[in-house]
Design goal:
Layout (H helix, E strand, L loop, with lengths): L2 H19 L1 H21 L3 E10 L19 H8 L2 H11 L5 H7 E5 L5 E8 L2 H54 L5 H28 L6 E5 L7 E3 L2 H23 L9 H8 L3 E4 L11 H17 L6 E6 L8 H11 L4 E5 L8 H6 L2 E7 L2 E6 L5 E6 L14 H8 L5 E8 L4 H9 L3 E8 L4 H14 L2 E9 L9 E4 L19 E4 L5
Parallel strand pairs: 6-14, 7-12, 7-13, 8-11, 8-12, 13-14
Antiparallel strand pairs: 1-3, 1-4, 1-5, 2-3, 9-10, 10-11, 15-16
């Protein structure tokens, strides 16, 4: 594969990974866009526009002039002004009968007329489709009626002029005939009277022809080609288009926000992301939400698989493993404890050192069936009744020497340094452990195992452990991934006090008041 193709593949993987990680941001943005569009529709009045199509008759004021085509006599601007005139609007308002004024009708009507075309589109806008259709049809009717009235008025004027002239010519013809009768044939007067009679007769014939043509002129303003109810009604804002635009804009902004938010969102969402950050294998991907000690059979099987992977990759002569428990909650996770249990199943003497100050749930103590072995100012040592190869050490709340944190006190350091063949020390640290304790534990360790809570553990915390481990030359054996909701059921914290050796707590019994002290403020 070429470098350009490989880079393109990596870039595509990055985009897909970001979209998968931030899909909630994208979905939230899409829903927000849809919600805003919905509010816009609720707050914005709906306006419906209906259109009526009319075909107008072209009536010339000079119908006897054949030098012009009828279509050239139609002016779009004039027709628009007529259709939107006050007279037409007043007649339309009366036709609608809704109480709307002529001014309101004029504000809501629009006309599309093109010079040379005989079809005019009249649109009317109203709050509802029915009102818009009624308004468009009313304006169309009023417009055609106005044109009819105007044409008829002009025709009447023409006919009146023709009739007046005919009457005058009739009088002149009578006069000419009278002069012919009274004049001697062949005289100048007789000839002139005959010529006048002929001219008058010709003009009369012309007038009669014109009157006949005028009588045949159709003065109808036009006809409605398509009523508003037969045309589609346009509703603005369109619900479909507005919601679609809102969702689309929300989706685009969501994509942009996903790439902006992703660098700041450092929560690890799945095992693949954990493996990418650590560069180490996933020892176990536990999906069960039920935490218990001992764990369920399914969880124990997964931890046994993790155990085999740990033992396979464990460096030679390695005896100290730091378990960095990055799970949330007020009490320690069950995973480090159960991992120590399955280690002890292999007849490996496992020394489990829990974080200090000594704050662990009753579930741990009862579940492991702990038997007190010793107690002094350095801490409490217990042996588990589940296995003779497992013991638990709880450091004291403070280092007596006062020169180190309780998690990695001098006594803890002495214990991890006193190792023998076939023994493993598990030093458990949680996210609340001081950074100095984490570094000190790494310095005294031979390997590291990380417990990450999906959707809770942060990549920067995990990466810091990996970086410090690499700097010290310590192998990161892998990660055990668990759901963030997985936690031990006990809500209270037990702070053990020195107890007589051999004392134990039986599962289901209340701890002895002399051996346990309830503390609601002790850290994990």
């Amino acid at each position: 594969m070429s470098q350009s193709a490989e880079g393109s593949t990596l870039g595509l993987e990055y985009y897909v990974r970001v979209l998968r990680r931030q899909w909630l941001v994208i979905v939230a943005s899409v829903l927000l866009g849809g919600l805003i569009a919905g509010f816009f529709l609720l707050l914005t009045p709906t306006r419906a526009t209906a259109t009526a199509d009319v075909n107008i008759n072209i009536i010339s004021t000079d119908p006897f002039n054949a030098s012009k085509q009828a279509s050239s006599l139609l002016d779009g601007t004039t027709e628009t002004q007529i259709a939107t005139s006050y007279s037409v609007a007043k007649d339309a308002a009366n036709e609608m009968g809704t109480g709307a004024s002529a001014a309101e009708v004029r504000r809501n009507v629009s006309v599309d007329a093109v010079t040379g075309a005989s079809v005019v589109h009249i649109a009317f806008t109203a709050p509802t489709a029915a009102e818009a259709q009624a308004g468009a049809d009313a304006v169309a009717g009023a417009y055609l009626a106005y044109r009819t009235a105007q044409a008829q008025t002009k025709l009447d004027a023409l006919l009146k002029g023709v009739e007046t002239r005919r009457t005058q010519l009739g009088e002149e013809l009578a006069n000419a005939n009278s002069r012919i009768s009274s004049s001697k044939s062949g005289t100048t007067e007789a000839n002139q009277a005959a010529s006048d009679r002929d001219l008058i007769t010709m003009e009369l014939n012309t007038l009669l022809t014109q009157k006949s043509v005028l009588a045949q002129i159709d003065t109808a303003g036009g006809s409605v080609l398509t009523t508003a109810s037969q045309n589609d009604v346009v509703v603005k804002p369109s619900k479909t288009q507005t919601l679609g635009a809102g969702l689309l804009v929300g989706g685009v902004l969501g994509l942009i926000a996903a790439f902006i938010v992703n660098p700041f969102d450092r929560r690890l969402r799945n095992a693949q992301e954990v493996r990418r950050i650590t560069g180490a294998p996933i020892l176990a991907d536990i999906s069960s939400l039920n935490a218990s000690i001992p764990a369920s059979d399914d969880t124990l099987e997964l931890l046994r698989v993790a155990r085999e992977r740990i033992l396979t990759d464990l460096p030679v002569d390695a005896h100290v493993i730091t378990i960095f428990d990055d799970t949330p909650g007020e009490v320690l996770s069950d995973i480090p404890v159960n991992l120590a249990v399955v280690m002890a199943e292999q007849d490996l003497t496992t020394h489990l050192i829990l974080p200090g100050p000594p704050a662990f749930s009753a579930e741990i103590r009862v579940g492991l069936d702990l038997i007190s072995q010793s107690a002094d100012e350095s801490g409490n040592l217990y042996r588990s009744g589940l296995s003779q190869h497992l013991d638990v050490f709880i450091p004291a709340e403070a280092d007596p020497a006062g020169n180190s944190s309780p998690d990695m006190s001098k006594d803890v350091r002495d214990r991890v340094s006193q190792h023998r063949q076939g023994e493993l020390h598990f030093v458990v640290l949680d996210h609340a452990s001081p950074r100095s304790s984490q570094l000190a534990a790494l310095r005294h360790s031979d390997a590291v195992v990380i417990v990450a809570a999906l959707r809770a553990s942060r990549s920067d915390r995990i990466a810091d452990v990996v970086t410090e481990s690499a700097r010290l030359g310590i192998a990161v054996l892998g990660t055990i991934a668990v759901p963030r909701e997985r936690s031990l059921p006990s809500p209270q914290t037990l702070v053990p006090t020195p107890a007589p050796p051999g004392e134990r707590v039986v599962a289901g019994e209340e701890p002895d008041a002399d051996s346990y002290a309830l503390s609601s403020s002790a850290p994990k």
